[in-house]
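Supplementary notes for students who missed Thursday's class. We covered one full example, reproduced here. Read the sequence, then the structure, then the short commentary at the end.
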Amino acid sequence: MVELYKILTIISVLAYWLLIAGITTRIVYKRRSIGVSLAWMMLIYVVPILGIFLYFLVGEMNLGKTRAVRAKEMYGPYREWFRRLFAIQQYRPHNLSDYAIPISHLCEKRLGIPTLANNQLTLKSSTETILTTLIEDIQQAQTSIHLEFYIWHPGGLADQVAQALIQAAQRDVAVRILLDAAGSRTFFNSKWPKKMREAGINLVSALSVSLVRMIFRRLDLRLHRKIVVIDNQIGYTGSMNLVDPKYFKQSAGVGEWVDVMVRITGSSVPVLNCILAWDWETETDQRMLPEPPQCHPHDEEPSDMVQVIPSGPGMPEDMIQQVLLLSIYQAKHSITITSPYFVPSENLLFALTAAALRGVEVNLIIPDKNDSMMVEWASRSFFGELLNAGVNIHRFRGGLLHTKSVVIDLHHSLIGTVNLDMRSLWLNFEVTLSVENLEFTQSLSEVQHQYMANSIKMDARQWRKRPLVKRLVEQFFYLFSPLL
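Structure (token representation):
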């Protein structure tokens, strides 16, 4: 019997060693960033059983076999739809500025999506204005309303949006809503799904979470896009979920969420609609490709140039980070960034510090209080390096600043759903607009300066005096920052 135990022990140790060696080889073979690879290996070696379980659960970009096959089959028709945009009147690469040209070339080559002229953008920076304007547009809808959001939370003006959609469906407007299952869990447990479906609204839960599904697909893939398209003519996107901040996470102790949205009309609206259609078909296997942009007599004179940039599983990897890096390295005078969750990659951290060291004024605006404890501490671990390089860090005190925006030299801007963390940059389904319009960019800059006026600017000398205990906690969470 003793010999049997010895044999079983040897077999168990050998099996354990082979498993660890196999996963380590797999991590190295995937050729992700060094920080991500090291974080996973440290987790596996320090807490082996838990680490191995987590790696199998969320360690790789596993869409699930059915979804992956469907996404591959879908690619042809959507690629052809985007290809036709290069032949329309609104494709005018010669009108692009020096800031937009490299971003446009990158998106054309990697995504097959061109920058289009003849858009009209309006920045909405008040939650009440955003939701009331959206309700008015819904009330005027004639044929279709398509929405996708990460979070829909009942209460306040969000309920008025729901009621407006029900009334639209009752007058035979086709209403389709795609909501992330995890983010909108409270909504799906409320009275609204039943009322909407009874009214004829097609409501779908995306990326459903269950113990069975986790065997076939990683659970933390999230549909983080925020898109509304009405009649294929009016679009909305930006940082705001479909929530009324007065009724959302009031017990979190971070204040009301502060967001912006862009209301857009013109040639880029069908592009947003096509991205939404991609998500809809991936989830439902139902195709609803929109009509392409229409040409009108007044389109001879170019207006706002917009590059729509989707990212996420099934699309070119590292897309948004490449756009961010291009924008930062082009800056000559100033960079102003707002992000609620700031856990940058090594490349982004280097780009920001290098910009500050070469004399560019770099302003980073983040919330003073965060609703994620892990992100809060991991974020702090980068402050010292940024402050020492001359980056200005502003901690917003007017609530949880949720706006995701970048302004370069007051001439070029990025705005959308992407946080400056690993999850948004590499994992979630996201969308960003690269905007080539001076008036819009300056309006966004004014909003950013309002945030700075309601912020505390960090002092590098004071930061160095923080207690040792806080430094140790920061470094602990820094080790896991590539996984956040």
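Commentary. The chain has a mean pLDDT of 87. The radius of gyration is 23 Å. If anything here is unclear, bring it to office hours.
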